[in-house]
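Protocol step 6 of 9: fold each sequence in the batch and record its structure tokens directly after the sequence line. For illustration, a two-sequence batch is reproduced in full.

Sequence one:
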Amino acid sequence: VHLVESGGGVVQAGESLRLSCAASGLTVGNYAMAWFRQAPGKEREFVARIAWSSSVYYGDSVKGRFAIARDNAKNSVILQMNNLKPEDTAVYYCAAAVRFTVKWDYWGQGTQVTVSS
């Protein structure tokens, strides 16, 4: 199984970015998929989750600004990030789980997002 994130970059506050997580070796529609992030010197933080049922859940810090979705045709998961803030600066990781309440089974290598003020 491989999860490959892309779409990171450097943007100014208030701008948008769209991250993509391309999966191989699994079908995203059969897994819970999520995005996490980790800023320097901080613990990994939950960002967003989409269950196999398509129900979604967001971390408090991104509610109303970020949106997670599956693209079944491309076997990928998208994170649309709007109104970015400097505090969103982090490495963003994609993860997949059979049972997310137990553990996240697979992780990508991450993509850097930097938001300047």
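Sequence two, same batch, same settings:
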Amino acid sequence: QVQLVESGGGLVQPGGSLRLSCAASGFTFSSYGMRWYRQAPGKERELVAAISSVGGATSYADSVKGRFTISRDNAKKRVYLQMNSLKPEDTGLYYCNEPRYDYWGQGTQVTVSS
């Protein structure tokens, strides 16, 4: 059974940091690229960052470049999203995704507010 379980969300002040984690199971994690998406209230789901299967290639939405870093640990079957210099517009539900077979986690809420 495939599972993606996100964690690490929470309430943070503008300018703060959070590190999201996604634990994968039920598939050969090291063989597939991974992505982080987010969805703000009333908005469409947005691709935030992506990483290749071995972590050699990454890409980011323009809105988060220079502030967010995606990484992975294939031995632990985890993908991470380090988020720095957070802004209120970063608020949303953050999802982990495996794009080839379209696996999704349940999401973790990030709220940036003073």
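Proceed to step 7 once all outputs are recorded. Observation for sequence two: The chain is about 0% helix and 50% strand.
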